[in-house]
Amino acid sequence: ADIREMSQPPDAPFLPDVVAAIDACAKPVVAAIAGAALGGGCEIALACDLRLGGPKALVGLTETRLGLIPGAGGTQRLPRLVGIAQAIALICEGRVLKAGDALALGLLDGVVEGDLLAEAIARAPDVPKRRLSALPVPARDMEAEEAAIARVRKGAKGVPAIEEAIRVIRAAGEGEFASGLALERAAFLALRESAEARALRHLFFAEREAGKVPGLEGVAPRPVEAVAVIGAGTMGAGIAVALADAGLAVTLVERDAGAAAAGLQRVADLYARQVKSGRLTQAQGAERLARVTSTADWGRLAAADLVVEAAFEDLAVKADIFRRLDAVAKPGAVLATNTSYLDLAAIAAATSRPQDVVGLHFFAPANVMKLLEVVRPALAAPDVIATALALAKKMGKQPVVAGNCDGFIGNRIYALYRRHAEVLVEDGASPQEVDAALEAYGFAMGLFAVSDLSGLDIAYAMRKRRAATRDPAERYVAIADRLVDQGRLGRKTGAGWYAYDAGGGKSADPVVEALIAEARAEKAITPRAFSAGQIQRRLLAVMANEGAKALAEGIALRASDIDLAFVHGYGFPRTEGGPMWAAD
Questions:
Q1: Cβ neighbours, 10 Å, residue 54
Q2: What number of other Cβ atoms are within 10 A of residue 282's Cβ?
Q3: Which site from 29, 141, 231, 569 is most exposed, i.e. has the minimal number of CB atoms within 10 Å?
Q4: pLDDT of 187-233, one tens digit each?
Q5: Pairing of β 58-60 and β 36-38
Q6: Cα 513 from Cα 181, distance rounded (Å)
Q7: Helix (H) or strand (E) run with residue 139 in it
Q8: What mean pLDDT is reported for the chain?
Q9: Strand order from edge to edge, sheet including 30-33
Q10: C-alpha angle 293/297/299, rounded to 5°?
């Protein structure tokens, strides 16, 4: 489907009419699927009497990714082919099936290795009519249906289309095909006009725009086959896994043999966890782990086409690493830093080749999180940025190009968002009220719970670094600093903004309440009440205002890039489209 048409008045011929005409045709109709038949394309194929695919065929009903449901019979024909439980899983998860998997499930009747069109034409005279609309729904397995529903609801993340899809798919087993079709169409038309669907369409286009960077037209990326990661801590190990998953040979470099061995063990543990959860087979895990080696020998860096530094977030430490790296890396190697706040120009200045230096800001856990901020220092060569974007695509990451400033796009805005949440607390809201308002808005976790999870010492170090340059007229809330001074660093110490029990359950803490009351008293603040709506609008306004400044300064290329950064990196609800879209 052409997603651009979704926001416009429908234009004839209407897809349901096309599908109905194929279904009603007296002659058998064969679908020959060479590439992607997704959404409406898949619905056309389901109306045919025989479906043949080439080896690169992809089929799926992916409408729920856009806040919709299939609107041309997909929710009624697919259950007649694969059963209701399987249809719920395929449609609600928006799953895209490769040719072999589609054949196994019965969505394809055959996979043709040779000339697909010739084979389809050769088979056509002997194809009988087989209308899915006339088939009964296979015997229902209520236990399997309930399990599928529970699974998709867990991943629904507030998308109303999921509940509608479940309702309409189950209707296929409860009435005539025509009544199910009418139910589907009414639900599709209502969803298409919903705010959630408009927000998801916005993100769909934003993802495709993000890789288009002015000045890179026709610029070829540098070849990257061998990569190295300096620093094999939690972040470095996650980056190594992300690179190995993309099929690259990875060398982990650490300060000594013990640290190198520990780093490789972290990578092995990450793969073991994926094998245990069933995301990878034992053989796949072993194959990917075999792509990673670890060493304390910096000389091994000379073979790398791209090096990612993932050391401690300290400018002196990183500058020293880049000085050493400059001496061993081969000419033309891309030198990347995983810094989340620091000045890229200062890091690049430690080398004799600033044109080869770029920021690759991964988000933790690096092998899971989709966002990759590609930070572009002023002296970076165009083909270095092109290489970073090509690498992001290879890893399946969502790149967002950012200019060089303190915190780039994401952390620059997030720091202000967190500061204003603390202002709300000092003015009268409790941390629990702020978190509850954010969760009601659609965040999986509130801001203070997230701070406890990541560790209060991280933001504390950033505030100390900025202290000398802070505007003395700026309002400063010291509550978080006092929590750190008391050793309350979050979950890892069993106490932060919340208290944590042995099982990890959180609760409000009288110690924190006393600290907040003390801070208010020092500034003679009379606490006032805030509604959930006031908290949500205040924090959204803060994000949108700082985003507008980042745009005006050229740090972000477009407003939609800011939306992508927050949806993919900071848990902003997809159904709200990101802070800039939501504010508009």
A1: 19
A2: 11
A3: 141
A4: 999 999 899 999 999 999 999 999 999 999 999 999 999 999 999 99
A5: parallel
A6: 56
A7: none
A8: 95
A9: 30-33, 50-53, 110-111
A10: 105
Chain CA centroid to CA 584, Å? 22
Nearest to 185 by CA among 277, 31, 70: 70
**CB atoms closer than 10 angstroms to residue 204:** 15
Counting Cα atoms < 13 Å in the Cβ hemisphere of 296 gives 8
Torsion angle, alpha carbons of 405, 569, 451, 253, to 10:
-80
C-alpha to C-alpha distance for 82 and 88, rounded to whole angstroms: 10
Query: Closest Cα to residue 212, out of 386, 377, 55?
Result: 386
- 283 burial level (CB within 10 Å; 0-12, 13-18, 19+): exposed
pLDDT tens digits along 256-265: 999 999 999 9
Residue 58's pLDDT band (cuts 50, 70, 90): very high
**The three-state (H, E, C) secondary structure of 355-410, written as one string:** HHEEEEEECCCCCCCCEEEEEECCCCCHHHHHHHHHHHHHHCCEEEEEECCCCCCH
Distance in angstroms (rounded) separating the CA atoms of residues 542 and 419? 10
Active site residues: 43, 63
Q: With residue 98 as reference, give the H or E element that holds it.
A: strand 97-98
Answer for the pair 109, 32: CB distance below 8 angstroms, yes or no.
no
Coil/strand/helix, residue 227? strand
Residue position matching structure tokens 């932060």: 496
Residue 401's DSSP bridge partners are: 374
Closest alpha carbon to 206 in 24, 371, 443? 371
pLDDT (0 to 100) of residue 71: 95
Compute and round to an integer the Cα radius of gyration of the chain. Answer: 27
Share of the chain residues as helix, strand and coil, in percent rounded to the nearest 5 = 55, 10, 35
With tokens 């303190």, the residue in question is 406
Tokens for 125, please give them: 């005279």
**Cα–Cα distance measured from residue 552 to residue 14, given in angstroms and rounded to the nearest whole number:** 42
